[in-house]
TrEMBL record:
SUPFAM superfamilies given in the database record: (Trans)glycosidases (SSF51445)
Pfam families per the UniProt record, alphabetical: Alpha-amylase
SMART domains, per database record: Aamy
Any one Gene Ontology molecular-function term assigned to this protein's record: (1,4)-alpha-D-glucan 1-alpha-D-glucosylmutase activity
GO biological process, one term: trehalose biosynthetic process
Lineage start: Bacteria, Bacillati, Actinomycetota, Actinomycetes, Pseudonocardiales
Glycosyl hydrolase family 13 catalytic domain ranges (all copies): 3-625
Organism: Kibdelosporangium aridum
CDD domains xrefs: AmyAc_MTSase (cd11336)
Protein name (database record): (1->4)-alpha-D-glucan 1-alpha-D-glucosylmutase
Length: 725
């Protein structure tokens, strides 16, 4: 069942099944079509996100277990809300071996374990390497209750292997505990990116597929779950084959994949899914509100960095260092290790899909020739899996913290080298978009929220002024590392007001992901101290100046926020609202964007604005108004949201309007509000309407040649519904 819209919730100890049930009536009143939940299966003890599943056969006890899950299902069904859940087919959590009975059995019994083929382990490479030790020493091992212990870490003993010192017992096991630093180069099981506590499972094996999907498929067949979000399909050996098996097992489910498409890439046509999770649409919508004329100035401000060279350099570094173990496993299939390292960074996208006949993104060379000759072979799948890891770690998790000329563009699915999106490109891409694919502006993985990006887009209209500010502020209180310095000033402006602790946590992450002056594994104590002290210093010395500047871009930022939200919610696709973003939300990358949401406040505001369109102010009520009116229309009158035709205004400021028509509905929004004001406003710009229309946001009627200034009298956006339809 395809939902009219979704609302993403991050589940955990503070948002359990019971908590979701308590806010379900609010979500229904908002107009939401389906609750869209982060993973709900049993996860590693203490997990804050659920992507480290340890038992895929049961609902998480932390979230309330099976009884609470069924109570939630009942509440949602009574409200006619669907339930979409996040499914993780690529890996399982192994940080706490006793909590994962499959992994525990593998460690205890090695190759003879009944689960030995469940995990993607290179058994020919020797005992399973477990990189948990703080050094090369085994002195801290102990035997307690017939288990091998390393501080709080517990490991099983194979039958008949006890006796002697802990070190002697360790040598008899099917695994070896080693220095954590050896993982990146010597690990002999596949993992999720460079995270050794997430072990990949061989879901391509029908037995493993059944074992890992039985519970979820049962929920779907019982109509307790109506949709699935498939996490990281690029990590699978053969995504197309997996998705075809999943579709056969769940023919009625709405299925979208977390597939990160490049700007010119499309989803493989052989995948039987309804679409992606919307990063491709995020790029298009956000880009509309960026002034492309500012590109040269921001490039100059950033020192004219070479993005392609930086990406290639960082991808090669990742292949040589973080993912050396994966490279070596590929080389054991008869390929020179250096050739693999040279080949992987040249993928222009996350991966090709040779097994599905998608080869246009495959770099040329001898390795590619072997892959084409063996499209379903192990070499092909391992190269493609690793290429996705190289792209994610080299670009998304490194370059996007280094290439900081305009950070509103630094999101997965975007190309920071493309400065904004033209109206023509937007219409061209959206006109061919599928109605069943998800659209999104904020997710749990975005580097910054939609409202941060909307405010940053304003800076593209005043590039000279912002460049002067950065130079002046840097002279007073700059960071010593230039790229982090530029990122920091954009972050302060985009997320203002921001507390010292939030800013410090973000800059710590950003500086270490960038891996220039410091990193997570090789700390630079002096630089780390400088970064940690910077937020307090800046807020104390420049807080009033920053507030003065933000006060001037705040209003145009709100205009952009409302504009991009209206476009996203009204365009083709199934729109998702990330938790809390129905009000202004100035969150940064996780964990900042996973902070608790005040749903009681949102419930109160929704009730207050039921009959009276609110003003645009700090409360964010105007955004909630836009969200609720469109989501309710999608729920009540889905026939309005079909088809797509670009709509243009005429007159001196026509370029500042972005509009499109659906079936008896017209959506219109303001672009580049500062430039609009600078040029004299809308003046005689008109939008010609055929017949009489009513604005769902203001209840005002319009017909014929409507002055855009009149159309946008109350809000910088309008949602027109044909009267009498």
């Amino acid at each position: 069942m395809i939902p009219s819209s979704t609302y993403r919730l991050q589940l955990g100890p503070d948002m359990t099944f019971e908590h979701v049930a308590e806010i379900a009536d609010y979500l229904a009143a908002l107009g939401v079509g389906a609750v869209y939940a982060s993973p709900v299966l049993a996860a590693t003890p203490g997990s804050t996100h659920g992507y480290d599943v340890v038992d895929p056969t049961v609902a998480s006890s932390v979230l309330g277990g099976e009884d609470a899950r069924m109570r939630l299902v009942g509440e949602l069904q009574e409200l006619e809300l669907g339930l979409v859940i996040d499914l993780v087919p690529n890996h399982m959590g192994i940080a706490d071996p006793p909590s994962n009975r499959w992994w525990w059995d593998v460690l205890a019994n090695g190759r003879s374990s009944q689960y030995a083929t469940f995990f993607d382990i290179d058994w020919d490479a020797g005992p399973v390497l477990v990189p948990v030790l703080g050094s090369d020493s085994l002195d801290d091992l102990s035997i307690v209750d017939d288990e091998l212990r390393y501080f709080d870490h517990r490991f099983p003993l194979a039958e008949g292997t006890s006796g002697g010192t802990p070190q002697e017992v360790h040598e008899r096991q099917h695994y070896r505990l080693v220095n954590w630093r050896r993982g990146n180069s010597e690990l002999n099981y596949r993992r999720f990116f460079d995270i050794t506590t997430l072990a990949a499972v061989r879901v391509e094996d029908p037995v493993v597929f059944e074992a890992t999907h039985s519970a979820v498929l049962r929920w779907i067949s019982n109509l307790e779950v109506t949709g699935l979000r498939i996490d990281h399909p690029d990590g699978l050996a053969n995504p197309g084959e997996y998705l075809r098996r999943l579709r056969e097992a769940a023919p009625s489910a709405w299925i979208v994949v977390e597939k990160i498409l490049g700007p010119d890439e499309t989803l493989p046509s052989t995948w039987p899914v309804h679409g992606t999770t919307g990063y491709d649409k995020l790029r298009l919508v956000c880009g509309l509100f960026i002034d492309q004329a500012a590109e040269a100035k921001f490039s100059e401000l950033a020192g004219n960095q070479d993005l392609l060279a930086m990406e290639l350099d960082r991808k090669r570094w990742v292949a040589e260092n973080l993912l050396r173990a994966e490279v070596r496993r590929i080389s054991r299939l008869g390929v020179d290790e250096n050739d693999v390292i040279s080949f992987l960074p040249r993928f222009p996208v996350y991966r090709s899909y040779v097994a599905d006949g998608v080869m246009q993104n495959l770099p040329p060379g001898a390795i590619a020739e072997r892959m084409l000759a063996e499209p379903g072979g192990e070499l092909t799948s391992r190269v493609e899996q690793t290429a996705a890891m190289v792209m994610a770690k080299g670009v998304e998790d490194t370059t996007f913290y280094r290439y900081n000329r305009f950070v509103a563009l630094n999101e997965v699915g975007s190309d920071p080298g493309r400065f904004g999106v033209s109206v023509e490109e937007f219409h061209g891409k959206v006109a061919s978009a599928t109605e069943t694919s998800m659209t999104a502006l904020s997710t749990h993985d975005t580097k910054r929220s939609e409202d941060v990006r909307a405010r940053l887009a304003v800076l593209s209209e005043i590039p000279d002024e912002f460049a002067d500010l950065v130079q002046r502020w840097t002279a007073k209180a700059g960071l010593s590392e230039p790229t982090l310095n530029l990122l920091a000033w954009q972050t302060v402006v985009g997320a203002w007001p921001i507390s010292e602790s939030r800013l410090a946590a973000y800059l710590e992450k950003a500086s270490r992901e960038a891996k220039i002056a410091t990193s997570w594994t090789d700390r630079n104590a002096e630089f780390d101290a400088e970064v940690a002290a910077w937020p307090g210093r800046v807020l104390a010395e420049l807080g009033s100046e920053i507030e003065e500047f933000v006060s001037r871009v705040r209003g145009p930022g709100w205009s952009n926020s409302l504009g991009q939200k209206l476009v996203q919610l009204a365009m083709p696709g199934v729109p998702d609202v990330y938790q809390g973003t129905e009000l202004w939300d100035y969150s940064l990358v996780d964990p900042d964007n996973r902070r608790p949401v005040d749903f009681e406040l949102r419930r109160e505001i929704l009730a207050e604005i039921e009959d009276t369109p609110p003003p645009i102010d700090e409360s964010g009520a105007a955004k909630l108004h836009v969200v609720s009116r469109i989501l309710r229309l999608r729920w009540e009158r889905p026939e309005l949201f079909t088809g797509y035709t670009p709509v243009s205004a005429s007159g001196p400021a026509a370029d500042h309007l972005i509009g499109f028509a659906r079936n008896g509905l017209v959506a219109a929004a303001t672009r580049l509000p500062i430039g609009l004001e600078r040029s004299g406003g809308w003046r005689d710009t008109v939008l010609t309407l055929d017949g009489e229309w009513s604005d769902a946001l203001t209840d005002r009627s319009h017909f014929g040649d409507v002055e855009v200034a009149e159309l946008f009298f109350q809000y910088p956006v309008a949602l027109l519904v044909r009267s009498g339809q």
